Amino acid sequence: MGSDACMDQTIKSPYTSRVLKPYIRRDYESRPLKLRLLSEIHAYPHRKDPNWVAEPDAPIDYCYVRPNHIPSVNSMCQDIFWPGIDLSECLQYPDFSVVVLYKKVVIGFGFMVPDVKYNEAYISFLLVHPEWRRAGIATFMIYHLIQTCMGKDVTLHVSASNPAMLLYQKFGFKTEEYILDFYDKYYPVDSKECRHAFFLRLRR
């Protein structure tokens, strides 16, 4: 992810001219399964040393998107969604983004288009790496993105087979439309992913 020095600097949004802080949140409490596994691996060589004390875990950091995040974000998208995704456009409105890091590794991200229609923002991508799920990361990302567009409706498309549908419903999103073959133009021909989508809206 490049040098640590850049992470402690503010950035200026080209979209709103706001100065954005280095971190949205630093989470020292959550213990995703992957983090617990890494701790066990680190402790194993010292299992017979009663005086050994583990170093504190690094936090899970939530921050605004930066240019050095984009290669990892694109790679994750192409592995889990479909080939050819390039999210460089999100650098135009970093205020409406969240990238989740463990040390220098991207483990999740969420992006929103703030003005897709009048009084409507659209969540374009939201993803947590499978090894880091079930730890509240997606929940915080959705909460953050919703807060960035207070007063606007928030919409998104979600695959009909995606269990995240339940999470969106907890935030108050309601189904407006069921779209057949929505993902047909994105997924490869041999993909086994569900091609149908729900269109959801959170009304403000």
UniProtKB/TrEMBL annotation:
GO terms assigned for molecular function: histone acetyltransferase activity
Classification via Pfam families: Acetyltransf_1
Gene3D superfamilies, sorted: 3.40.630.30
Coiled coil residues, start to end: none
SUPFAM superfamilies assigned to the protein according to its UniProt record, in alphabetical order: Acyl-CoA N-acyltransferases (Nat) (SSF55729)
Residue ranges annotated for the N-acetyltransferase domain, each copy included: 60-204
CDD domains per the UniProt record, alphabetical: NAT_SF
InterPro entries reported in the protein's UniProt record: Acyl_CoA_acyltransferase (IPR016181), GNAT_dom (IPR000182)
PANTHER family listed in its UniProt record: CYSTEINE AND GLYCINE-RICH PROTEIN 2 BINDING PROTEIN, CYSTEINE-RICH PROTEIN 2-BINDING PROTEIN
Name of the protein: N-acetyltransferase domain-containing protein
Organism: Onychostoma macrolepis
Classification of source organism: Eukaryota, Metazoa, Chordata, Craniata, Vertebrata
